[in-house]
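Journal club prep, notes for RB
We'll compare a predicted complex against what the paper describes. Inputs for the alpha-D-galactopyranose case:
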Amino acid sequence: MDITQLKRIFSERFGQDCSVYTSPGRINLIGEHTDYNGGFVFPGAIDKGIYAAIRLNGTDRVRAYSIDKEDYCEFGMNEEDNPHLHWANYLFGLCREILKRGYQLEGFDTVFYGNVPIGAGMSSSAALESTYTFALNEMLHLGIDKFELARIGQATEHHYVGVKCGIMDQFASLFGKAGHLMRLNCATMEFEYFPFNPKGYKLVLLDTVVKHELASSAYNRRRESCENACAHIAKHHPEVKYLSDATMAMLNEVDVEIPAEDYMRAEYVIGEKQRVLDVCDALEEGDYETVGDRMYGTHYGMSKLYEVSCEELDFLNDLAKQCGVTGSRVMGGGFGGCTINLVKEDLYDAFIATAKEKFAARFGHEPKVYDVVISDGARKLSC
Ligand code: GLA
């Protein structure tokens, strides 16, 4: 599928010309499950995204065709018009969230496809949301800033998809910049672009192609644990607004008040905050060995304390270590998906070959391999 075919399918279906918008998926170097805890994240947009042909249709209805699902859906934009169809819920939800904020919307026709692997932890859903919030904002001259567009995507997840996600994915998809990672403080929404071009190293994703059932309810439970730990700490330390504001000493004070599971989750989040800060310092010095070491630290925490890894991801992480890969860890929400690996160029080929061979021998299929290309965020394509 490419843009020419996308436009052709649009005009066959709707008989009109269209505009084309795209928004990408993302990687995250470090800072996982920190966004909804008011911490730092370190994402970058990638060269894989959602591509949408779109045109206002002069009605108050949305007519949408998903090329990948080979499925068509038409719906109005009132709450009772909810199509209750998984992929269409995203479109319906973001229309509702735009309307709830008092903006005027018009109906539109659209056809879309994506090349962000679904369920791989690269945030195909944020790419979908950001493509449409960005397009509608521009086409209807709504004047919504990109931070608010990100919040609209996030609220769509919360209210129409059922995932109580943080802001990282939508932010990265909208603000991405080629060749740059972004360090975002999720408590204040202040961010900086960091040029990222580690000489002699490559970033590569290994996709287990595993997606565990109930990942979203497990994700929501992690968030509840963090909020519970934070509420207990805040009783003693009112200055603590988010769990990322807390220290291990503070957490230890409430050890007996909270379930052991919540303690473990909070221990991970507090550790992750320090790892992100360490990585920032190390990047400034060009010290990729420390960056890699903290990535392994994150994997350990996500596996043993936050418990969002799985056998396949742990296997790939161990393998990376054995192959001398500089840094490796589960990326994104977890429960399947990818590891992100920082690997020296001269080790790359041997690592990929070993990972494919050993993973296939153990699990019956090879992991998929994606080289990371850090790319631009949401935009209209001139075509
Ligand atoms: C998912 C969520 C994000 C973030 C990550 C984990 O991608 O959508 O908000 O919480 O998991 O860092």
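Talking point for the session: The pocket of alpha-D-galactopyranose is lined by residues 32-33, 35-36, 123, 165-166, 168-169, 332-333 (CB under 6 Å).
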